[in-house]
C-alpha cells in the first residue's frame, strides 16, 4: 500500500511539473500513468477522471496517435464500470486510430477489448444475438492478428505469445458461456499446448486462466479428476505469483467441485480458505459475501443430505414391512408408503444433485409402481430415470428412457407429461449435436403446453427454442419473435401461476396411510383398474429445490409444491456461484418472494422463473372508485375488534432489511409518467404492490383519468378515498402494524404535493394535514381505518389542511428527479417532510438509496448549499456517492458551522475516507463522523490518521464493525494529540485487536481534555486492559462507557464501576451486557450509594442476574437516591416473579423512564401454581406442574376479553374503564367456572404494577410468553395511567408499551447518547 501511494505521489508530482512548464505531451503521459495506477487499485471513477484529462490533452494539443493509449484505457475502465455504450465508443475509436496508424499491436488490443465488451453484453442479455456475433467476430480477429504478430514479431520472437494465448482463452471462454463445452475444451487445450511449445513459464498468469476455465469445463462434463487437476494447478500458480484474488477464486472452483460430488466438509474447507484470502484483500466485499453465502448454502445442502439418510432408513423399514405384508390386505398400503418415501428421496437427491441416487431411487419407484399397475407413476419414474441419465451425460440411455416415458404419457393423454418429456428429449438431442431435431422437440413441447394451457411449460419451451435459434441457427428474426413471445407470456402471466387443481393431486394424498384403502382395492390388476388408475395423478408434487448459479445461494434453499413432472423440465441448478472468467458474476434479488431458476444443462440458456406464485384469484383486482359525495357518518359502527394493531405516531423505526421495495405510479408536472420507489410505508405490509391514484382539481377539474395500484394479496380492494381541499386521492394505506395515523398524514401530504401544478410548487410549500375524519368524527387511530375493510371504495375520508410550510429541499429534490427522469423515493420524501427538523438537518436513513438513485438528492444539496447534518445510514451507498458528496461539500463554500456525517451501515470502502481527506472545508467543519458498519479494513488506517490530525473540530468518531485490526487502532492512537477535542470514540466489534494496542489507545485518550465517551463493545478485554481502563476512568470524567460482550466478568465489572465513581460524581451510561456479570454485581450496586445516584443508564442484558439479582435491583429502584433513567435487563433469567417484582418497585420511583425486561421468562412453562403472596411480602411462583396456557383460569379470562376494544385518544378513559370492567367481570365468571383464581390474580398483579409505574415511558415485555390478549389487557392498564398519549407495538412475540414522543424498535447502532 505504501509503495503504491509512493508511486502515485511521484506520478502526480511529475504531472504537476509537466503542467507547470506547459509540456502537454508529458502532461498527458503522466495523467495516463496516474489513471492506470488508480485503475489497478480498483478506483475506477478516480481513474476515469485522469484518463479524461489525458484524452482532452491528446485531442486538443497532440497528434491522433497519442490518443491510442487513452482510448484504450477509457474503454477498459468503462467496461469495468459496465457502462457498455461508453466503452464501445472509445474502443471503436481506438480500433479506428490503430487501423489508420497501421499499428497491428494496437489493432489486436482494440479487437480484444471490443470482444470482451460484447461478451459481457451477451452475458447480461443485452441485444443477445448481435452481442454474441460481434464478440465472436472481434475475438477471432484478435486471434488472427495475434498469430500474425507472433509469426512476424516487430522486435523478438516471443513478443506476442502471451497475447496469442489470451486470445485462445477469450474464444474458449465465449464458447463455454454458450454451453459449447467440447468446443471450449478443444480451444483451451490447444492454448495449453501452445504454452508448452513456446516454452512459456510454468507459472505464467496466462496459464492460470486456462487451467481455471478448463477446471470449470471438466466440472460441467463431470470429469472430476481432470477438473481437480486443472483447478489445483490454477491455485498453485496463483499462489506462486502472488495473485491473491485468483487463488481465492480457484478455491471457490475447488469447493464447487466438492459440492458436485456431495463432499460438503471438503467444500466448506475450500470456501473457508477462499474467504480468508478474500478478507485479506481490499474492496472485495462482493467476493466475501458470495463465499459466505456459498458456505451457508453448502451447510444447508449438508442438512438435506442428513435428511435423506434418515429417509433412507425409513425406506429400509418400509421394505421390511413390505416383506411381512405380502399376501395380506396391507400390501397395497405399504406399497403406497414406499412410493411416498421414494418421492421424498428423489426430491432430496435432486436438490443436492446426487444424480446416481436419483437414478437408483427412480428405478425402485418404477418397480413398485409396476407392481400396483399405476401407469402415471410408472411414467413419472421413467422420466426421472431419463433425466438422471441426462445429468450423468449418458445421452443414449437418457433418450431411451425419455421415449418410454413419452409413450406412456401419450397413452394416458397427459399433456403436461408429454410436454415436459419433449423438453428433456430436446436437451438430449441438442447435447448429441442434433440441433434441428432438438428444436423440433422444443417446438412440440410448446405446442402441447399451449394445448394444455400450461404457462410455465410454455415459457420453458419458448426459452429453449430461443436458445436454439440464437446459438445453433443464428436466426435473428426468429430469435426476436420468440423473445417477444416470452415477454408477452410474462405479461399475461404475472407471477407465473402454477395451478394445481384437486384432480391433479395424487390419490395417495387422501388415502395414504389409511388402513381402509387396501380393503377397497383388489390386488389383481385388470384393464378397468388400469383405466381407473389413469385418472389418478402421481403423488410426487414436491418441487425440487433448485439452486441458481448466479444468485446468492443461501436465499435459494426453499421448498414449494408443484407437479413432479416439472422436475424433469426444470434443469439442475444447485451449483454454487462459481467464478466465471476469474471473477464473480453477482445477481442480486430484491424480492424474496421470487426465485430465479436457471438451467444447468449445457445446452439451455439460463431462465428466471418465479416459483412462489399467486393463484388466479389472487392476481385479480377490482377498482371501486368512490364518489366524493359518499360520506361515512358512523365510525363507531366499524370500530375494530382486533387488538394487535400498533399505533406509534411515526416513531416505530423500520428496518430496511425487513422492508421490501415498492413502487408508485406518478405523473410529473410535465405529464410524464414514471414509477416512484417507496420503502413501503403507507403500503401493503405483505410486500405486494399497491396503488395510489390522484384525480380531481389537482391536474384537471373533474378529470376522470386516474391511476390505481391495488393490492394483490387480498380478495378485496384496499383503496381508501381521501378528499383534500376538494381534490381526491385514492390509495392503499394498509401498511404494517408499526404505521401510525401520523405517518398516513405525512404520506398524504407528500402525495398531494407531488401532484400540485408546477406553478404551485415554485415556493417550495408543502401542506400540513391537521387531521383526517369520516363525517364529523376525527380518526385518531389506524385501527379505525382498518375497520373499513369490506367498505373500501364506498367511503370518503376527509383530510383537513392546517396550512403550508416551506420545505425547500423537497422542492429541489423533486425538481432534480424530473430533470433526470428519476423516480422520487417516497420514503425519502417522508424523511425530508419531517416538520420537527429544518432543512439544515438532512436525515434519509433506510431509504434504500444506491449510488445512482441518490444523485437527485445530492444535486438538491448542491443547490441548497448549506446543511449541518447529513444522515445517510442504512442504505446501499458506495464510494461513488462519497466522491459526489465531496464535490457537494467543496462547492458549498461553507467554511463555518459544525457538520455531522452519519454514514454507518452502507457499502463504503476505505477510499471513501480519502474523499474526506481531500476536502479542506471539512477540516474546520467536521464534528461528528460515524462510518461504522462499512468494510474499511486496515487500508483506512492512514486516512483515519489524517482525519484525526487535520479535522480540528472532530469530537466524535465511530468505526465499529469496520473489519479493522490492531494496526488501525495503533494508527488512531498515534494520531491523537493533547490538543484534540475528541469527546467520543467507538471502536467496538473489530477483530483481532491486541491488548497492547487497546492499552496504548487508552493511554493516549487519558491525555485528552474533553474525552468522556468510550465504546468498546465486542472487544475481548484482558486483565491488563481492564486495569488500564480503570486508570482512565479515574483520570477522566467518563459519561458513557460501553463494555458489552467484552468478557470482563464480575471482578472486572466491579473494578470498572468503582473506578467510574472514584472521587467523581457524574451521571454515567454503563453497558455491561453479556459480560459474565452475576447477581452479585446487582447486590453490590444496590448497596453503594455513590453508584446508585450516579448511574443514569445501565444495561445488564445477557447476564445471569436471576431471582437474587431482581431482589437487589428492586431494592435499588426503591431507593430515593436512585437516578436511573434507563434499565435494560433483557435475557437475565429473572423469571416471572423477578419481572413482576421489578415493575412493582417502580411505584415509588420518579426517575426511571425506560425498562427492558424482554426474554426473561416463559409464562407457559413457569406459571401454573398459585402465587405465594405471604412470603417476604413479594410475589413468587412455585414450580410449574401444569401448562398454564391450556389449563389455567387465565385461558378463560383471555377468551372472554378477546373482544375488548381499547381506544387511543379521547376515548381512552371510556375504553380503559370498559376493559377493566370486562376483565373484572370475566374474572368473576372465571372464578365460578374454576376452583382456582390464580390466572386472574396473575393478570391483576401485573396490571396493578404497570398501573402504578406512572413515570415509566417505555416498557418492553417481549418474548416472555405473554399472549396477544394478555398483552392487550396489560396495555389497558398502561394507557390508563400515562399522563400523555399511550402507544403500543404488539405483534407476534413483540410487546412494547410506550408513550407519544418515545421511539420503538430503534436499532442499537442508531441510538443516540
Automatic annotation (TrEMBL):
Keywords: Chromatin regulator, Chromosome, Coiled coil, DNA damage, DNA repair, Leucine-rich repeat, Nucleus, Repeat, TPR repeat. SMART domains: LRR_RI (SM00368), TPR (SM00028). Its main location: nucleus. TPR repeats lie at residues 248-281. SUPFAM superfamilies: HCP-like, RNI-like, TPR-like. InterPro entries: LRR_dom_sf, TONSOKU, TPR-like_helical_dom_sf, TPR_rpt. It comes from the Eukaryota. One of its GO terms (molecular function) is histone binding. This is Protein TONSOKU. It comes from Rosa chinensis.
Amino acid at each position: 500500500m505504501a509503495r503504491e501511494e509512493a508511486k502515485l505521489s511521484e506520478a502526480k508530482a511529475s504531472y504537476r511539473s509537466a503542467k507547470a512548464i506547459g509540456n502537454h505531451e508529458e502532461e498527458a503521459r503522466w495523467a495516463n500513468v496516474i489513471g492506470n495506477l488508480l485503475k489497478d487499485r480498483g478506483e475506477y471513477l478516480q481513474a476515469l477522471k485522469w484518463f479524461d484529462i489525458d484524452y482532452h490533452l491528446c485531442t486538443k494539443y497532440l497528434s491522433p496517435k497519442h490518443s491510442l493509449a487513452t482510448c484504450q484505457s477509457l474503454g477498459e475502465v468503462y467496461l469495468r464500470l459496465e457502462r457498455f455504450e461508453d466503452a464501445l465508443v472509445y474502443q471503436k475509436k481506438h480500433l479506428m486510430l490503430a487501423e489508420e496508424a497501421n499499428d497491428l499491436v494496437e489493432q489486436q488490443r482494440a479487437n480484444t477489448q471490443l470482444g470482451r465488451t460484447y461478451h459481457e453484453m451477451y452475458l447480461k442479455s443485452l441485444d443477445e444475438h448481435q452481442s454474441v456475433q460481434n464478440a465472436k467476430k472481434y475475438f477471432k480477429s484478435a486471434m488472427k492478428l495475434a498469430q500474425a504478430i507472433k509469426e512476424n514479431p516487430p522486435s523478438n520472437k516471443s513478443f506476442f505469445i502471451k497475447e496469442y494465448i489470451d486470445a485462445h482463452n477469450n474464444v474458449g471462454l465465449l464458447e463455454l458461456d454458450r454451453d459449447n463445452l467440447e468446443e471450449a475444451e478443444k480451444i483451451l487445450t490447444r492454448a495449453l499446448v501452445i504454452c508448452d511449445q513456446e516454452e512459456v513459464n510454468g507459472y505464467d498468469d496466462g496459464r492460470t486462466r486456462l487451467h481455471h476455465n478448463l477446471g470449470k469445463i471438466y466440472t460441467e462434463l463431470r470429469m472430476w479428476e481432470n477438473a481437480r487437476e486443472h483447478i489445483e494447478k490454477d491455485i498453485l500458480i496463483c499462489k506462486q505469483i502472488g495473485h491473491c484474488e485468483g487463488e481465492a477464486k480457484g478455491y471457490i472452483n475447488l469447493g464447487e467441485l466438492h459440492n458436485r460430488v456431495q463432499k460438503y466438509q471438503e467444500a466448506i474447507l475450500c470456501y473457508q480458505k477462499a474467504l480468508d484470502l478474500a478478507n485479506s484483500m481490499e474492496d472485495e466485499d462482493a467476493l466475501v459475501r458470495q463465499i459466505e453465502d456459498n458456505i451457508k448454502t453448502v451447510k444447508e445442502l449438508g442438512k438435506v443430505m442428513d435428511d435423506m439418510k434418515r429417509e433412507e432408513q425409513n425406506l429400509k423399514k418400509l421394505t421390511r414391512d413390505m416383506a411381512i405384508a405380502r399376501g395380506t390386505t396391507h400390501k397395497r398400503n405399504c406399497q403406497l408408503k414406499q412410493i411416498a418415501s421414494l418421492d421424498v428421496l428423489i426430491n432430496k437427491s435432486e436438490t443436492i444433485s446426487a444424480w446416481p441416487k436419483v437414478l437408483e431411487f427412480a428405478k425402485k419407484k418404477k418397480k413398485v409402481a409396476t407392481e400396483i399397475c399405476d401407469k402415471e407413476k410408472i411414467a413419472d419414474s421413467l422420466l426421472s430415470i431419463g433425466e438422471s441419465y441426462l445429468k450423468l451425460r449418458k445421452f443414449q440411455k437418457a433418450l431411451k428412457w425419455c421415449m418410454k416415458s413419452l409413450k406412456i404419457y401419450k397413452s394416458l393423454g397427459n399433456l403436461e407429461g408429454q410436454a415436459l418429456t419433449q423438453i428433456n428429449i430436446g436437451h438430449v438431442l441438442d447435447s448429441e449435436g442434433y440441433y434441428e431435431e432438438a428444436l423440433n422437440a422444443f417446438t412440440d413441447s410448446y405446442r402441447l403446453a399451449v394445448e394444455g394451457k400450461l404457462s410455465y411449460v410454455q415459457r420453458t419451451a419458448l426459452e429453449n427454442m430461443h436458445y436454439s435459434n440464437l446459438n445453433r441457427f443464428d436466426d435473428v428474426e426468429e430469435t426476436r419473435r420468440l423473445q417477444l413471445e416470452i415477454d408477452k407470456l410474462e405479461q399475461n402471466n404475472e407471477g407465473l401461476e402454477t395451478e394445481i387443481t384437486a384432480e391433479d393431486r395424487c390419490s395417495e394424498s387422501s388415502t395414504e396411510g389409511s388402513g381402509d384403502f387396501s380393503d377397497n382395492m383388489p390386488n389383481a390388476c385388470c384393464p378397468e383398474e388400469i383405466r381407473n388408475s389413469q385418472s389418478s395423478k402421481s403423488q410426487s408434487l414436491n418441487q425440487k429445490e433448485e439452486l441458481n448459479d448466479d444468485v446468492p445461494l443461501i436465499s435459494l434453499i426453499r421448498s414449494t409444491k408443484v407437479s413432479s413432472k416439472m422436475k424433469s423440465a426444470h434443469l439442475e441448478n444447485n451449483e454454487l456461484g462459481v467464478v466465471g472468467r476469474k471473477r464473480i458474476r453477482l445477481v442480486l434479488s430484491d424480492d424474496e418472494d421470487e426465485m430465479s431458476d436457471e438451467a444447468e444443462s449445457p445446452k439451455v440458456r439460463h431462465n428466471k422463473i418465479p416459483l412462489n406464485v399467486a393463484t388466479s384469484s389472487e392476481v385479480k383486482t377490482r377498482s371501486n372508485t368512490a364518489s366524493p359525495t359518499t360520506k361515512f357518518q358512523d365510525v363507531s359502527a366499524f370500530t375494530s375488534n382486533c387488538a394487535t394493531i400498533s399505533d406509534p405516531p411515526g416513531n416505530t423505526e423500520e428496518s430496511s432489511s425487513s422492508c421490501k421495495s415498492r413502487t408508485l405510479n406518478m405523473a410529473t408536472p410535465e405529464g410524464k409518467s414514471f414509477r416512484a420507489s417507496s420503502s413501503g410505508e403507507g403500503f401493503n405490509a405483505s410486500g405486494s404492490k399497491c396503488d395510489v391514484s390522484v384525480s380531481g382539481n389537482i391536474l384537471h377539474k373533474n378529470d376522470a383519468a386516474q391511476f390505481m395500484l391495488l393490492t394483490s394479496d387480498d380478495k378485496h380492494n384496499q383503496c381508501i378515498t381521501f378528499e383534500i381541499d376538494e381534490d381526491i386521492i385514492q390509495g392503499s394505506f394498509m401498511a404494517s402494524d408499526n404505521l401510525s395515523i401520523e405517518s398516513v398524514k405525512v404520506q398524504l401530504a407528500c402525495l398531494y404535493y407531488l401532484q400540485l401544478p408546477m406553478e404551485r410548487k415554485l415556493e417550495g410549500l408543502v401542506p400540513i394535514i391537521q387531521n383526517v375524519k369520516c363525517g364529523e368524527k376525527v380518526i385518531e387511530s389506524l385501527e379505525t381505518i382498518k375497520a373499513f375493510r369490506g367498505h373500501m371504495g364506498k367511503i370518503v375520508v376527509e383530510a383537513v389542511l392546517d396550512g403550508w410550510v416551506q420545505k425547500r429541499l423537497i422542492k429541489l429534490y423533486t425538481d432534480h428527479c424530473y430533470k433526470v427522469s428519476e423516480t422520487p423515493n417516497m420514503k425519502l420524501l417522508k424523511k425530508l417532510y419531517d416538520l420537527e427538523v429544518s432543512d439544515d438537518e438532512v436525515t434519509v436513513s433506510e431509504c434504500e438509496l444506491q449510488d445512482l438513485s441518490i444523485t437527485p438528492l445530492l444535486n438538491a444539496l448542491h443547490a441548497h448549499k448549506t446543511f449541518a447534518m447529513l444522515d445517510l445510514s442504512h442504505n446501499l451507498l458506495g464510494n461513488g456517492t462519497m466522491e459526489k458528496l465531496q464535490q457537494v461539500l467543496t462547492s458549498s463554500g461553507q467554511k463555518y458551522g459544525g457538520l455531522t456525517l452519519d454514514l454507518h451501515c452502507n457499502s463504503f470502502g476505505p477510499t471513501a475516507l480519502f474523499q474526506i481527506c481531500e476536502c479542506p472545508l471539512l477540516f474546520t467543519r467536521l464534528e461528528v463522523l460515524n462510518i461504522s458498519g462499512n468494510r474499511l479494513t486496515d487500508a483506512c488506517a492512514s486516512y483515519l490518521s489524517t482525519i484525526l490530525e487535520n479535522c480540528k473540530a472532530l469530537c466524535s468518531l465511530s468505526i465499529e464493525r469496520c473489519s479493522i485490526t490492531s494496526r488501525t487502532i495503533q494508527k488512531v492512537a498515534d494520531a491523537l494529540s493533547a490538543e484534540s477535542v475528541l469527546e467520543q470514540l467507538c471502536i467496538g466489534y473489530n477483530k483481532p485487536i491486541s491488548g497492547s494496542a487497546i492499552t496504548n489507545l487508552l493511554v493516549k485518550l487519558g491525555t485528552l481534555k474533553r474525552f468522556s465517551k468510550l465504546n468498546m463493545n465486542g472487544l475481548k478485554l484482558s486483565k491488563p486492559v481492564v486495569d488500564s481502563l480503570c486508570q482512565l476512568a479515574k483520570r477522566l470524567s467518563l459519561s458513557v462507557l460501553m463494555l458489552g460482550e467484552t468478557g470482563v466478568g464480575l471482578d472486572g465489572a466491579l473494578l470498572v464501576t468503582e473506578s467510574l465513581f472514584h472521587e467523581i460524581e457524574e451521571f454515567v451510561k454503563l453497558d455491561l451486557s453479556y459480560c459474565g456479570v452475576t447477581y452479585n454485581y446487582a447486590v453490590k450496586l444496590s448497596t453503594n450509594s455513590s453508584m446508585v445516584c450516579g448511574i443514569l443508564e445501565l444495561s445488564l442484558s445477557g447476564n445471569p442476574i436471576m431471582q437474587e439479582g431482581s431482589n437487589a435491583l428492586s431494592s435499588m429502584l426503591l431507593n430515593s437516591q436512585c437516578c436511573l433513567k434507563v434499565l435494560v435487563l433483557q435475557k437475565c433469567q429473572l423469571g416471572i416473579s423477578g419481572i413482576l417484582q421489578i415493575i412493582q418497585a417502580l411505584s415509588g420511583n420518579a426517575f426511571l423512564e425506560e425498562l427492558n425486561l424482554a426474554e426473561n421468562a416463559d409464562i407457559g412453562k413457569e406459571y401454573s401454581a398459585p402465587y405465594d403472596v405471604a412470603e417476604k411480602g413479594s410475589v413468587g411462583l412455585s414450580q410449574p406442574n401444569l401448562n398454564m396456557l391450556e389449563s389455567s383460569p387465565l385461558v378463560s379470562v383471555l377468551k372472554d376479553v378477546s373482544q375488548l376494544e381499547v381506544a387511543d385518544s379521547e376515548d381512552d378513559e371510556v375504553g380503559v374503564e370498559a376493559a377493566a370492567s370486562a376483565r373484572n367481570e370475566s374474572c368473576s365468571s372465571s372464578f365460578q367456572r374454576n376452583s382456582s383464581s390464580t390466572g386472574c390474580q396473575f393478570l391483576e398483579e401485573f396490571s396493578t404494577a404497570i398501573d402504578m409505574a406512572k413515570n415509566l415511558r417505555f416498557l418492553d415485555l417481549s418474548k416472555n410468553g405473554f399472549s396477544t390478549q394478555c398483552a392487550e389487557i396489560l396495555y389497558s392498564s398502561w394507557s390508563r395511567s400515562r399522563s400523555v398519549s399511550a402507544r403500543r407495538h404488539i405483534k407476534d412475540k413483540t410487546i412494547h408499551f410506550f408513550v407519544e414522543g418515545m421511539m420503538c424498535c430503534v436499532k442499537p447502532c442508531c441510538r443516540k447518547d
